[in-house]
Amino acid sequence: MLHELFDPEEGHFSTIRVPLGSCEPASQPFYTYDDVPFGEHDASLAKFSVGEGEPGAPDATKDLKYLIPVLQEILAINPAVKIMASPWSAPAWMKSTGQLNMGGHLRFGEYTNNGYAVKDTFEGVYAQYFVRYLEEYRKYGIPIYALSIQNEPSNAPAWPAMIWTIPQLAQFGYKYLRPALDKTFPDTKMYFWDGSLNVLDVIDKPLSELITPDEAAAFDGFAFHTYDGPYTNLFKGSRLNPNWHLAMTERRCMIEETPEDASHIMMGLIGNWLVRQGLNMIDLWNIALDERGLPNQVGATGRRGVVTIDHKTGKVQRNLEYYMLRNFNQDVAPGSIVIGSTNYTQDGYTGGLGSVAFLAPDGSIAAHIYNPSGKPLDAEVTINRDGAYAWQHVTVPAWGTVTLHKAFGPVNESKPREDEAFKLNPYPANLMDDWAPGKGVNANKK
């Protein structure tokens, strides 16, 4: 499956996002990399550990049990894959609540040692926590392309989480994390926000009044989730700093939506509208789960991965999201730029055919054409260079896409492997009826 996803001759997936520490979709109890008994500190991070044992060994712990060996395998298949890491929570001893779950915030302005040195603030120690993570992963041959400071900084659920205000994120990145990274990992990117766009609709001031230009310049990009709109809130980030790259770092895969609504979201909103607004990176959550929505420490809560792997047979189901991601990764070369193209859907839901076209570094063109309607639509496609001339005639299926290439080299024409037949199933009957451990909605079913 990893070859099918990441091999440049197959799916050519080029980015992934991983938790820095544990998150709720996990097979191990919650942990961070520096867990100490309540009431103790570890200001020197002497107990920092990404796990014990050999990568992938039965007795390995934390990231060494599954995450690190899988990332090593992915990078062996495609060394160019970019990895973004986001923490769900700082270690409990660094937090105001003294626990991982249910939010709480970093112990801002407090000190971990005798004195008032910046390095002894909880902010300074937490910045070094990120550096230690990068150092440990480098030892295992895993470069981390980018970091965000916090996954969903406005959310306080019953799993590892931490609350940050927008000024707190900006100041921590500018004053503590960026300087710490610049000493040993100057090429590691740092992304701002990494939360839902709807939260930006309720803050009482524009971002330009909450973040100074120097603070904004410390970040390389703006990361966001697309669970709720208005999606035009993207502009609140993209227009704050025109040099920021835009990364959609999370969207739960479709499960309750009808096929047409799922297509509108994945192919229309994300694949057409957001990409036309400058989106540089697309990551979905999660890449793989079983048919119960597991692993998950809070139980089978009705989630689905890009691929579904049956927990008894290992059979793979490739979901709609798989095809959306493969559509871009296989057809659009890394480093491509979006070029002008005619677009008749303003929102990815309504109107006529939508398009987004890409110019690759070698001069090749790839064009995605999307049909938001419930009936097939025909199109005559032209390229305007030295005058318009007919290129191709295509029929785009209902709620579907067609990709066209004008290439100066080989085109990746690979197809999903035929070992498993794909079947779109937006209502998996067994997902909520099968029993799974944890605190989820079906925790008591047996």
Automatic annotation (TrEMBL):
GO molecular function: glucosylceramidase activity
GO cellular component: membrane
UniProt lineage: Bacteria, Bacillati, Bacillota, Bacilli, Lactobacillales
Pfam name, any one: Glyco_hydro_30
Protein name: O-Glycosyl hydrolase
Keyword Phosphoprotein: no
Membership in a protein family: Belongs to the glycosyl hydrolase 30 family.
InterPro entries in the record: GH, GH30_C, Glyco_hydro_30, Glyco_hydro_30_TIM-barrel, Glyco_hydro_b
Stretches of the chain forming a coiled coil according to its record: none
Segments forming domain Glycosyl hydrolase family 30 TIM-barrel: 5-246
Transmembrane regions listed in the UniProt entry: none
GO terms (BP aspect): glucosylceramide catabolic process
Domain named Glycosyl hydrolase family 30 beta sandwich: residues: 335-403
Keyword Metal-binding attached: no
Keywords: Glycosidase, Hydrolase, Signal
